Amino acid sequence: MTAWLALVLAGFFEILAAFGLKYTGGFTRLWPSIGTLAAIGLSFACFGLSLRSVPLGTAYAVWAGIGAAGTVTLGMLAFGEPADTLRVLCLALIVAGTIGLRLAAN
Predict the structure, then answer these.
(1) In contact, 15 and 71? CB cutoff 8 Å
(2) What residue ranges do the domains of the chain occupy?
(3) SS3 for 80?
(4) pLDDT in tens, 48-94
């Protein structure tokens, strides 16, 4: 697995972890808690793999950007959170910055 693929997977698992937290009830519900902890573990494992060749600062910013943008998007789609112009613009800036860091890492 390439480092960048591992980093994208880490971001995906980060989104799943954030989504799962909504259903854990403060970690009082067993199965959502297990799923969330598994997603957190997989996110960190993939993030660690990516650090073999992606610089730490770039990897962390891309990981956090994927997680933040994905979680905001999921919140809009799944939970009806506001999708006003300013929020979408800020989301686009996160995505643009994440892509920019990937391009700058070459």
Answers:
(1) yes
(2) 3-104
(3) coil
(4) 999 999 999 999 999 999 999 999 999 999 999 999 999 999 999 99
